[in-house]
Write a structure and sequence with these properties.
alpha+beta; two-stranded parallel sheet
């Protein structure tokens, strides 16, 4: 659950490929919609959050 994940010391997401570009853009830059993108509510309280993405997945982001 999000409450357990948000108490983790480290959380990592991995997104690769052009087919993930639109979803990644929505998760990181779009409006809050956790029912469609649950990763939007993952914000570790005292831990670290890391996104590992490739160039293709990042192609839809405004900050590259």
């Amino acid at each position: 659950t999000k409450s357990i994940v948000n108490r983790s010391s480290r959380v990592a997401f991995l997104a690769t490929g052009a087919d993930k570009a639109k979803a990644l853009e929505q998760v990181l830059e779009g409006p809050l919609n956790p029912s469609l993108y649950p990763s939007q509510v993952i914000r570790p309280v005292t831990g670290e959050l890391h996104w590992f993405i490739d160039e293709a997945a990042a192609s839809g982001l405004s900050y590259k």
